[in-house]
Specification:
The chain is an alpha+beta fold. 42% of the residues lie in helices and 12% in strands. The protein has 2 domains: 1-133 and 171-177, Hypothetical protein, domain 2 (Endonuclease III, domain 1, Orthogonal Bundle); 229-350, Alpha-Beta Complex (Nucleoside Triphosphate Pyrophosphohydrolase). Strands 1, 4, 5, 6 and 7 form a 5-stranded mixed β-sheet that branches. Strands 3-2-8 form a 3-stranded antiparallel β-sheet. The structure holds iron/sulfur cluster. Iron/sulfur cluster is lined by residues 143, 146-147, 190-191, 196, 198, 201, 203-204, 207, 209-210, 215.
Length: 354
């Protein structure tokens, strides 16, 4: 039984697909390969001028293999992910040295070249040699995940395996070159990430995600990694003039160069704060008042901040300096302060007595 998936897709491609991309002209393995690598994480419209300039300077695999690496990188400048350009040249040298300057038409051999994975190898085989080979780039993953309602994130092995299975089952024996371009085009032009144009889609009648009205649920997103949780004591040390002790943080790292409150070992109990202030800061303090704690989220961890206020009996023991200084509250608020420290200093009403 013919696969209606491929048939519908090819009919659509004949009328609406992209037939005039620069790598379609004088199509060969070298041009397909360079375009495929450039298109990884980059849109077609961005790639076109880079591809044309690259081909002007490096028209074949030999010129690329022999070029100074800095020149290859400068032609890549603006496309990002520079490892791709370095890998490209490394693979070009292998093609020249080990394959006599000719790309193999076997996907397994292509996959031995640096930077060429299973899908890129298949794209080269299908587009340059017209041989049947299933591809599964980001666009194709999206189309297939939606069409078959495959749950989960494609970065997971089990999900990827299912998608490869569907990619293989739909790839036709005939018109390998067109089918490869057709499914990439459908993903880029119709089955788009945020607002798929299902009304214009040739696959709509068989698409499970569309039938469920859940198109954007597929493919699943990368699971978010739980951020580690850390805790700290922050002490508001106030002298008899109402001044507060602040410390300047080191220039790099979290809150680099900003003024913040002194921190104490999170393992301490509230009844050990007084003694710790004396030992660590040389300050003779009264009993601590605990202030409502809160959580602040950084890019890579959550910090539970437990503030405490202590009245300092003798502030002379800590001299003003670049690193640690006493400030009246109004003066402190003119400094560069991290947002949670600023709100801590401006909302003393949150105070709760120990
Ligand atoms: S019907 Fe919609 S969700 Fe399904 S493949 Fe087409 S564009 Fe994508």
């Amino acid at each position: 039984m013919p696969d209606r998936f491929a048939e519908r897709l090819l009919d659509w491609f004949d009328k609406h697909g992209r037939h005039d991309l620069p790598w379609h002209e004088n199509q060969n393995a070298y041009r397909v390969w360079v375009s495929e690598i450039m298109l990884q994480q980059t849109q077609v419209a961005t790639v076109i001028p880079y591809f044309n300039a690259f081909m002007d300077r490096f028209p074949n695999v030999q010129t690329l293999a022999e070029a100074p690496v800095d020149e290859v990188l400068s032609h890549w400048s603006g496309l990002g992910y520079y490892a791709r350009a370095r890998n490209l040249q490394k693979a070009a040298k292998t093609v020249v040295e080990d394959f006599g300057g000719e790309f193999p038409d076997d996907p397994e051999q292509l996959e031995t070249l640096t930077g060429i994975g299973r899908s890129t190898a298949a794209a080269i085989v299908a587009q340059a040699f017209g041989k049947r080979a299933a591809i599964l780039d980001g666009n194709v993953k999206r189309v297939l995940a939606r069409y078959h309602a495959v749950p989960g994130w494609p970065g997971q092995t089990a999900v990827l395996k299912q998608l490869w299975h569907h990619a293989e089952e739909h790839t036709p024996d005939a018109r390998a070159r067109d089918y490869t371009q057709a499914i990439m085009d459908l993903g880029a032009m119709v089955c788009t990430r945020s607002r798929p144009k299902c009304d214009a889609c040739p696959l709509q009648s068989g698409c499970t995600a569309h039938a469920e009205g859940e198109e954007t649920r597929y493919p699943g997103s990368k699971p978010k990694k739980a951020k580690p949780e850390k805790t700290t004591w922050m002490v508001i040390l106030e002298d008899s003039d109402g001044r507060i002790l602040l410390e300047r943080r080191p220039p790099s790292g979290i809150w680099g160069g900003l003024w913040s409150l002194p921190e104490l070992d999170p393992a301490l109990g509230a009844d050990e704060l007084q003694e710790s202030c004396e030992r660590q800061l040389g300050l003779n303090c009264g009993d601590p008042e605990l202030i409502s704690g809160f959580r602040h989220t950084f890019s890579h961890y959550h910090l539970h901040i437990q503030p405490a206020r202590l009245l300092v009996h003798d502030a002379r023991q800590v001299a003003d300096g670049d690193h640690r200084s006493w400030f009246h509250r109004d003066e402190a608020l003119t400094l560069g302060l991290p947002a949670p420290i600023r709100s801590l200093l401006t909302q003393p009403e949150q105070t709760a007595l120990l």
